Amino acid sequence: MKxxxxxxxxxxxxxxxxxxxxxxxxxxxxxxxxxxxxxxxxKLETFQVAIPSWALGAGGTRFGRFGFKGEPxxxxxxxxxxxxxxxxxxxxxxxxxxxxxxxxxxxxAIKELAQSHDIVFDAMNSNTFQDQIDAKSSYRFGSLxxxxxxxxxxxxxxxxxxxxxxxxxxxxSLTVWLADGxxxxxxANFQQALQxxxxxxxxxxxALPDDWKLFIEYxxxxxxxxxxxxxxxxTSFMLANACGQKAYTLVDLGHxxxxxxxxxxxxxxxxxxxxxxxxxxxxxxGDDDLTVGSIKPYALFLIFNALVYxxxxxxxxxxxxxxxxxxxxxxxxxxxxxxxxEAIQEAYAKALLIDQKMLAAAQEEQDVVKCQELLxxxxxxxxxxxxxxxxxxxxxxxxPIEAYRDLKIRAHLISERGENSxxxxx
Length: 426
Description:
Blueprint: H1 5-13, H2 16-32, H3 37-46, E1 50-52, H4 75-89, E2 94-96, H5 107-116, E3 120-121, E4 124-125, H6 149-169, E5 173-176, E6 181-182, H7 190-206, E7 213-217, E8 227-228, H8 233-243, E9 247-252, H9 262-271, E10 275-280, H10 297-313, E11 321-324, H11 333-352, H12 356-364, H13 368-379, H14 384-394, H15 400-406, H16 409-417
Parallel strand pairs: 1-2, 2-3, 4-5, 5-7, 7-9, 9-10, 10-11
Antiparallel strand pairs: 6-8
Helix pairs in contact: 2-14, 3-14, 6-7, 9-10, 10-11, 12-13
């Protein structure tokens, strides 16, 4: 199903009067506060978040997976689904592929399909946490860190293959996440595992085109529970520095132990010019991969405060690559992604309302109460009319979830794909 401007116009018609009333009230309030509403809207309109190809089907747990009807079983269908999200929200203009789950059969055809939806290809994602059917060596005991050179070479070759695939699609970056680690004390030599990983990443780095970036992800635990080779931002940062200027740390919100101060990590990395990418999700206990903003929306806002400050004050840091990395085990995947996109944009909009000059002055005066008031005044502002206006300016839906349901998009997808279609790669 491809959504047209007429579809969007029909769903927006019944909401436009209410939207304009609420927007006018918010615009006047913000203008009276000295905020440049037009500048804020421009930033919201240009903000784009990539959708990972694996997020378009129902997720699962170690104990089971409950599929969702009408899932995309082919890469073409996944791109069509991202096209639906982008048409409704006007902020999902990129897709991030996972290899070998989504290897294109016809690169030119895939590029043309993406272009028809106004979608580009974001970071390519390699997979060395699963053994593939034709694999000559196993990753049971690691990939880039494995004591077996055969396994390491196989993992290196896979990452280089992924780079070559990405160049055909117009991607400009490679994300490496490793499941490597150990489950029992004494199983692995920590120093050897880290050195093997560094050497492997350097070999992959050498294969990067000049205009590409390498994003190194980290995770404190899972699937191994005694140790993880790249367990925190410091290890990722160290490895990125060892590789070179085109290597960066990638921050995934769920990849932290409970109560970690993620905004401080973000600030440090941006100050050092090494925050390359950002994966959005939410969590209650660990790497839960829940809908963005569903559990800790204030924490997300504080993180965006650090990001906004960094984008304004750390010119050496590249503009971050944004992506959602969530799992929606019991929700319609597209509805979940719409909710995540809106939560991200809402947190960003609220962070843009913070008067950074006043905040800096309050910090210099050590006025802790004033600092808190400045943050919470911005956070308590209902910015949804701003988000609606930004979507309207670009031809999107005032309320994407309502439009999705009014247009009966899931029913159309089930009619086209059947009730038993299963997303590839899951």
